[in-house]
Amino acid sequence: MPHEPSAVMQAVLLTGHGGLERLVVANVPTPTPLPGEVSIRLGAAAVNNTDINLRVGWYSKSVTNATEAAQATAHASADAGWAGNTLSFPRIQGADGVGRIVAVGTGVDPARIGERVVIDPILRDGDTVRYFGSDTPGAFAQVVCVPQRNAVVIHSDLSDAEIASFPCSYLAALHLVTRADIRQGQRVLVTGASGGVGSAAVQWAIARGARVVALAEPSKADELRALGVETCLPRDCDPCNSLGMDSLDAVLDVVGGERFPRLLELLRPRGHYATAGAIAGPIVSLDLRTLYLKDLTLHGCTIPPPELFGELVRAIETRVIRPLVARQFPLVQLADAQAAFLRKEHVGKIALTID
């Protein structure tokens, strides 16, 4: 039976831009669903790069270095939201959430109470799009309210922590492979292949029949080969020397930084480059001759079309993709979880269990 929410819940608040000390465990009022919303008692959440990027103010146009460097020099900025907006504090982050519906607002069928749901993090209202846990209160709490269409029923024997590893990273990765039109027999490079989005992109590309080359730390190569990766190269190598110029159909990049020009050199004429991150640095060099003489297509991937979340849920339920939960922490240890995330010693996701 679902638990009735109490008047007060536990959450982790981001109290301002800065280091891990800005994450504070607190008791806050439990939200109640507005018309058209449902209230979800969360069982698990997960850590993502976007959480750190918002905390340190990395999305501001004034920041030009890597996420790791921005972590050491975090500062407040008027455009520190992911969409260039000003953030208010305190706020509850968390883009991944799974749990059970415990209450509904007016206009929602009460029969939905008790459903096990995973949260679609893309909140759409006409032409307005918001990201769950960035623009709205997120999953780093015991209870959250979302529009009922974003509470998607899921039928799976996976644990809450395993399901919570999917929404943000795997949806972003599905967007990458869809925009890049990955198909059977293509040869595809995935950068940052051991991370959440990277390891998800590996799985999606292989599911579509592609031959995947991964860039990652050598210590993680065996785990990536177990996913079906054909070739695993050290992340600090020059991939053109290893693979050859004009050798790939597509590059799925979540790293950015200085390597960007060489990634375009790898592409065959009419190849596709798709990006959903730039942890190594957002400012890159582009030789327009490479772009137009090779008829390349560049894709920026943030807001996927709405049908992709349904595809993600079906893939979870049918085991087309699988969870890669490297470690689990209780929600109250979110700071420790983010510290482990930033060490980049794992493959896949770090999950948070919520009591």
What are the defining features of this structure?
355 residues, alpha/beta, Quinone Oxidoreductase, Chain A, domain 1, Rossmann fold, 7-stranded mixed beta sheet, 11 helices, 17 strands, 25% helix, globular
What's the SSE blueprint?
Blueprint: E1 8-14, E2 23-29, E3 37-46, H1 49-56, H2 67-72, E4 97-104, E5 116-119, E6 122-125, E7 128-131, E8 143-147, E9 151-153, H3 160-164, H4 167-179, E10 187-190, H5 196-207, E11 211-216, H6 221-226, E12 231-234, H7 239-243, E13 248-253, H8 260-266, E14 267-275, H9 288-293, E15 297-300, H10 307-317, E16 325-330, H11 334-343, E17 349-353
Parallel strand pairs: 10-11, 10-13, 11-12, 13-14, 14-15, 16-17
Antiparallel strand pairs: 1-2, 3-4, 3-8, 3-17, 4-5, 5-9, 6-7
Helix pairs in contact: 4-5
CATH class of the largest domain equals Alpha Beta
What would you call the shape?
globular
Helix/strand structural class: alpha/beta
Strand residues, percent: 25-35%
Indicate the low-confidence ranges by residue numbers: none
Q: Secondary-structure element order, as H and E?
A: EEEHHEEEEEEHHEHEHEHEHEHEHEHE
CATH topology of the largest domain: Quinone Oxidoreductase, Chain A, domain 1
Name the assembly state: single chain
